[in-house]
Amino acid sequence: MRARVLILLILGTQLPFLFQAFHIDDRIYLRVAENILEKPLYPYDFRISFEGMGAPDTASHSHLPLVSYYLALLKWVTNSEAEWVYHLSFLGFPFMAAWGFHDLARRYVRFPLAASCLLVTAPGFLVASHTVMTDVPFWSLWIVSLSRFLRVRDGTATGWDWLIWGLSLLGTCFISVLGGGLMLLMLVCLFLRESGAPQISRGKMLLVLASPLLLWGFWYLRAFLHYDRFLLLNTAIHALGRDIYSGSIMGEKALSLLLNLGGTVLFPVALWYGLAGRVGGRVLAVLFLLSFVPFYLWWEDWTWSQAFLFSLFLSSGVAVFWRFLSGFGTELLFKRDWRWLPIWLWFFGGCLACLLMYYSGSVRYSTLVAGPVILLWIASLEKRVKGAYLLRNLVWLGVVLTSVYSLTVAHADYRFARSYQQAAQEIAQDYGHEGKTLWFTAEWGFRHYLEREGAKILEKTEVGPEAGDILVKPVLASPWVTLYDSDEYLDLLEQRTARMNTPWRLLDPSSHAGFYSTGWGILPVSITGGGRWEWFNIFRVKKPYDGPVPEPATHW
Amino acid sequence: MTVPSPSLQPTGEQPRPAPDRFAVLFLGLGVLVLHLVWLALDEQPQVWDMAHHQIRGWESLQALAAGRLPEDVSSLSSYYPPLYYLQEMVVLSLWPNRDALVFLSNLPGLVMLFGGVWWLASRCLSPGTAPWAALLSLCFPLVAWTSRFSLLDVALGGWVMLALCLVVKSRRLERKGYSLLLGLVIAAGLLTKWTFILFLVFPLVWALVHSRDRKRYLLNLVDAGLVAAPLVFWWYLPNARNLVERFTLTMQAAGWEQDPGLESLLGWLYYPRSLASYYLFLPLTVLFVLGLFLKSGRNQDRTPDASLIRWTFWGGLLLLTLLEAKDPRYVLPLAGPLAILILQPWDRRQWIVRLAASVALLQFLAVSFPLPLVSGKLALFQVRDDGDYRGAGREWVLFASSYFDVAGPPRRENWRHREILEQIPEGAAVGFVPDLAHFHLLALRLQALESGRELGVIRLGHSARSLEQLERVQVVIGKTGHQGISYLTASNPAVYERLEQNGWQVSRRWSLPDGTEALLWLPPGPPEAVANGPSNAGRSLSTISPIREEPPRS
């Protein structure tokens, strides 16, 4: 019965989005996968062109290639480029996450099924699970690995648990170096345990824990020999070039983290009734009301509904953070109860990573800590609500509210992705048959589908378009300025508006929405104020570029 | 069985018999009736702020009639909150008459003040004294004068008294229901005037200090705030930016008006002096000061409610003193606590209580109607030829039957607004030069609204820049002789000079009550050109940028 509920919920929230267009950075992992089919041992050995700048190889890309290997395998097996093939193949990850989280949640709460349901329907998780990016595979392997680790640590593990733990830990670390955080967490939990816990063989566990280090050592040494540089150094240079530790960016990331915690893990109102007691509820209400004030004193271009979302998310996020801090203080520091240590480390470590490891805020980053937030929410409800009937209903009400909310957000993301697919196809159809080259300056799914239609990317310092060629520039999808961007070289033919039939926005400066990056807005999701969203400027090239050509712009 | 509190049963003194209560109730009603009589007898145009507040009431009525009141509430007024205007709107929708408007709009405030003082006084004074305190609060001269104008202060005083009563009734916010009710009253007070909060800070701090269950107090206070906040935010948030800007302006105005600052003794004495000068006059001031001395130290009434009233009074005075902008009527919400504090020391000497009430009643009559032998003004440090009302910040008034030329006994004065309005063609943009208490642009605009007309009118002469604004108007209203407050009318002579230079002609003249003449100036050219809209440089009204209304004074 329990498994059936979970399976139905996952299928119900995944299958309607099976045909979702490739979106945001899906394209990058698909491109790496293509290269893997050509050079299986060197997945990143191809020239990168990103945001109008190039580099001779893609090796210093921030992620390790496990997901791309998986995509390459799918492509090799199916020889298909259809979206549904990949989305269907990625369906295993939500199941994996739900399975692992159920096992994990049993240790902490009386409603592990509800906890799993909440995880797979958390807005951040649900939206990410409709992509082929690394996020959901990473979280899923993380959760499975942690759940098996705790079994091993507690001496209740079977041989399968050892195997699953080791493989999932390796998998996590072969998707992202952030897997090192999981290793650290496990290391701390291995040595800090409650008194009276069963004795275990730490040596064997340390061996498993060290295995990712061997993998990384091998990977980066091999890359060093091949590319003649330490790859992560260039990654760091790229990140530091964006001034990621400046006060304003750290502040932006911290604010974004709080908003994401409040707005993209559970339905915010559920967070209120789950986390806030008599005093906390009032503090939240006061904070909620006070959060409106800046919009009327200083920030002018926010609509009432956007200000409302900001206030709701912020107060809810503060509640989450405060409960973790106070719980950490009372349970661990005063009562010396180590049971929740893995969850606290997971939460605080994840938050720290959001602040230190990225150059912007994003729901994709903060959803790493969705698991701890869900466990805390249910545990908090269990502590406060004594009546079993009311408790069960409140927990499941949270599941229902969160599911409805998440599906709304996921639908907006579906429409968002689809709008680029449609636009690319229509523009190619209207302008691609004139015997002239179709150029573009864009990223995300728009780039993927334009390239699929035979269009060419025009980099910042590239000279290529001839008279009569067409250049397409979106406003939102990471455009850049090229040598041709002046009236001397371009004639504006048309402005075409992207179609969107929902008021919800995930990435839109005019709505302050920045689900994927705070570069576009601080809110994780927002409601449009009626401002222009995405549109495409379509130009005809008047003449070939005849000015001075600067040095090519590169990422490092 | 309820044990009566000691303060309700003073030793050696039996509770006063009921007839006292009826007598005071009757006298209180009499005060209200006298206000009505005064309003019926007085024919002066509304003074600056009073006209402004009435205009807002009319505009609220227009918004209601147009069915756009809910969305317009936050924009009806950008400086003063809208509750008083909504009260005016209700009155105007029922009875569109100026006297009824003033009386009925102030009536809730007066009733709350009277009832609140009575109830609160009955907690710390004997039953024989408490009603007299209530009567006293209505009879203070400035309370009496203000009650006959469209000003926010009486309503504010009423809300403050009600809030104090609820602080007490809620047992210092231990009772949830009364605390939530307090939230509603806080909202009403803040939606009347933001200074409301100044009068509640000290009582709430006092209640916190003396609370038996501080956690419950804080929770209930937050609940009250949560009840109030959405209502208050409805108006304050959309106007927040403007309020901050205008607050700065008002503080600057304190400089122009030469309000004494905190660096001078006058600044610290401003409100005690104002209370003595415009609320008490000499006899009651002496009684109050004597009472303070007699009941200071160990003799002080230490019952909780008496303590609350003292904190409210002295705390409110302190916070008002810290504000740069000052005006005697700002302190009106402390009239209630003041009335109780005056009578408290004499609670066991009923003859003094009755004497004080009689003096107050006599003063009330003297400042309301022309009585023989008691008219005029007796003041220390009196400012002579005080056209700029600077005396309000300096004089120590011992007695005065009027408050400058703004308030006092009723007068039948015709300042000609109706006749002037009849001469102004429909749609003409009007420039108004003088700025006297009863002859100013807002009074003309109010007259127009009352006549069912929309009139675009701007002030000329408030600065040198107003000469440029001459091009925007087709009719100018001027006046001979005294023009008004000197620093606000410094450029008036230049305006008149420019009118003559540009060939404007005085079309009509009317004699005014101050012995001067009102003048209606028209631009050169045939009069029908003005009637048809503007001949002035061939510009039509639609091309003239929107006529801004003169902002109200502080």
What does this structure look like?
The complex is a heterodimer of chains A (556) and B (554). Chain A has 556 residues and is an alpha+beta fold. In chain A, 47% of the residues are buried. Chain A is 58% helix and 7% strand. In chain B, strand 3 (429-432), helix 18 and strand 4 (456-459) form a beta-alpha-beta unit. Chain B contains 20 helices and seven strands. By secondary structure, chain B is of the alpha/beta class. In chain B, the strands form two sheets. Chain B has a five-stranded mixed beta sheet. Chain B has a two-stranded antiparallel sheet with strand order 1-2. Chain B has helices spanning 19-41, 48-65, 69-76, 83-94, 98-124, 130-139, 141-146, 153-169, 176-190, 198-209, 214-236, 240-256, 265-294, 304-322, 335-343, 350-368, 417-423, 441-450, 492-501, 527-531; strands at 377-380, 396-400, 429-432, 456-459, 475-479, 505-511, 517-522. The interface between A and B is medium-sized, with 12 and 13 residues.
Helix count of chain B equals 20
How would you characterize the largest beta sheet of chain A?
Answer: 5 strands, mixed
Major beta-sheet overview of chain B: 5 strands, mixed
Q: Write down the Rg of chain B.
A: 25 Å
Bin the strand percentage of chain B: 5-15%
- The rough form of chain A would be described as globular
- Parts with pLDDT < 50 across at least 5 consecutive residues of chain B: 1-13, 531-554
Mean pLDDT across every amino acid position of chain B: 87
| Helix/strand order of chain B, N-terminal first | HHHHHHHHHHHHHHHHEEHEHEEHEEH
Give the helix tally of chain A: 22
Share of residues in strands of chain A: 5-15%
Number of strands of chain B: 7
The main sheet of chain A orders its strands as 4-3-5-11-6
Structural class of chain A: alpha+beta
Distance between the termini of chain B: 53 Å
What percentage of residues of chain B falls in helices of 4 or more residues? 40-55%
Measured distance between first and last alpha carbons of chain A: 54 Å
Tertiary shape of chain B: globular
Structural class of chain B: alpha/beta
